[in-house]
Amino acid sequence: MQRCLRSMVIALGVASAALVSPACSKSPQITAESIEDNWALTEQHEPGSVVMTVAPDGQVTALVKDRDGKPIAADVSGSVSVKVPGKGGAPMSAALVPEPKAGGVLLAKLPPLEDDLTEVSYELKVKGEPFNGVLHVPRGGTRELQESAREHQTTQLDGTKGPNGGVLQPVGDDVVEIVADKESGDLRVYVLDLNLKPVPIGEREIKLAIQTPSGPDVIVLAPGPDRLYFTGKLNVKVNPTKITVVLKQGGHTHVVLCGYRPGAVIVVGPSAPVIGILVATTWAVKVDVKPTVVVHDDDDDDGRVIVIHKHKHKGKGKGKWHWK
Predict the structure, then answer these.
(1) Quick one: signal sequence residues (predicted)?
(2) 27, CA 20 to 30 Å: which among 80, 256, 279, 293?
(3) Interval 129-162: pLDDT, tens
(4) Do residues 310 and 292 make contact, with C-beta atoms less than 8 angstroms apart?
(5) Tens of pLDDT, residues 301-320
(6) What order of strands is seen across the sheet that includes strand 92-95?
């Protein structure tokens, strides 16, 4: 009898430990130390910064840091909201809730990302200071934006102007020029070949999410005459501070944050630098509709120039082009 009682007590103790241990040992998946390694974007505000991830299932993680880069865990509150594509009414909002033992990480749950571009807004109060911003994220969330940036980080286009004086941005296998007339606000996007010459847009589709001091705006561009370029209209004739480009072709969708480099800090608010797409232009640059042959260096420093492409190139060597 005593042996049986002792066995029962031991069994109950083991069962209780099994129930309690997971809860006691559970640790947060993302902490203040690891959030930046989980495909986060960092936006720099005047009083500090917001580090945020948005996952394809709608899970949002956020962390606020002070001017010195130290996490702020106390006196932080706020929410995130999303405009669900194709559904009317007010945006759906979710409170940002502190994650225990995560060093200041906040969590929220939004609907899954189902469109090629979803607008996610955040409103935070940190010791009375507002931290507000907007992200435009693809189906793959912030991870997809980081991966797109890594794919093109070896492409040397910084400071290079397009044929019309606009901004150049690699997207998928293409390079596009984004340019607008500063007088009329007429917006055009050209597709360029490896020599940075405009070519017909083919069956591509493009839309832009543009952020200005007046707020965010998504512009769906239409094909221009003879499908030589895309055309649209700026609602506000000012240079934007952020542009997210969505390009569709052949069943594939590519989304990039214009000018972004992996791990870079995105400055927002009054001190944010602008992207110079507004130029004085007469749209005099012609689109070459004839196939031309271009060559490029194979980038191994042996002096050889190889690979011949026409306009409908397949983008071999993707992410390794070096334009001048």
Answers:
(1) 1-25
(2) 80
(3) 899 999 999 999 999 999 999 998 877 677 789 9
(4) yes
(5) 444 433 334 444 433 344 44
(6) 92-95, 76-83, 118-126, 129-137
